[in-house]
Amino acid sequence: MEIFGIPLQAFLGQLLLGLVNGAFYALLSLGLAVIFGLLGIVNFAHGALYMLGAFAAWIMLDQFGINYWFALVLAPLTVGLLGVVIERLFLKRLYKLDPLYGLLLTFGLALIAEGIFRELYGVSGQSYNVPELLSGATNLGFMVLPNYRAWVVAVSLAVCLGTWYLIERTRLGAYLRAGTENAALVQAFGINVPLMVTLTYGAGAALAGLAGVLAAPIIQVNPLMGSNLIIVVFAVVVIGGMGSIMGSILTGLGLGIIEGLTRVFYPEASSIVVFVIMVIVLMIRPAGLFGKEA
Asked: From 49's CA, which of 102, 105, 120, 274 has a CA 20 to 30 Å away?
């Protein structure tokens, strides 16, 4: 059976690959959207935090024998703690300044992290094996579905929807949104707004770290893995609408699928299709598909 002249198995294989990539786009752009939407920081260090999450999982296994399942919790916590340190030492001084200062600072931190890990581990990459429980594949009849890739999509969707619900539908989320709009008023009710802001940045960093752990068994863990992805993720956030949580999730998944299908029908355009869509969206709706017009 063929679809537009493409064998069904090849078509579905690329669709699955696009969905997996979309899951990473959604998870990473979610962290960016949380940090920008609640703190107003354009966090260019997000790709480096993603890389650090993958390296944390690999180092835990290689040096300490900590397996994937423990690393899935410990690595994001480690990256989140690093995010807390970054916010307390650097970013808290920039909140009243132009957002460009935050972008330049986080870009510099990303270059420093990438340079350190290039010096320590080179750029050839480190392999991280798929956990035994998720190895192999399931035959669906019309295609063979790798178990680990299905796991990545499921976890990414669960985390993305859980984060959206926490921010948009709970009292804690209401406090976060109110604290960023009128910190003095919220603090008058006895809420520690600076601590809340710090933990928000840490949570956004932890989401990037989680994406890194999920990616480690799929791609080679290397210092450039974040810089290769962050530009696409920023494009996803712009298309969805800067600061829009659900916009980032839906756009990330959708663009991943579109990118996968482009590899089937017009492979030459697969590396630029996201940016072409970004240009078209910005021409029609500058605030993004789900963003609010100023």
From this structure: 274
**Conformational region of residue 14, where left means phi above 0, alpha means psi within -120 to 50, and beta covers everything else:** alpha
Model confidence pLDDT, tens digit, residues 237-291: 999 988 788 999 999 999 999 998 898 888 899 889 999 999 999 999 998 998 8
- Whose tokens are 């869509």? That residue is 277
Nearest to 52 by CA among 129, 135, 112: 112
Residues with Cβ within 8 Å of residue 284, at least 6 apart in sequence: none
CA distances from 73 to 20, 29, 68, 247 (A): 21, 20, 9, 26
Q: DSSP of 139-199, one letter per residue? A: E-SSSEEEHHHHHHHHHHHHHHHHHHHHHHHSHHHHHHHHHHH-HHHHHHTT--HHHHHHH
Q: Where in the chain are the domains? A: 2-118+142-229
CA 156 centroid distance within chain: 9
Closest C-alpha among 29, 23, 76 to residue 53: 76
Tens-digit pLDDT profile for residues 176-234: 878 767 777 788 888 888 898 899 999 999 999 999 999 999 989 999 999 878 999 99
Comparing CA positions, the residue from 290, 240, 21 lying closest to residue 149 is 21
Q: What pLDDT, on the 0 to 100 scale, is given for residue 253?
A: 94
Q: Please tell me the pTM assigned to this model.
A: 0.93
**Number of residues in the chain:** 294
Q: Which amino acid is at 169?
A: R
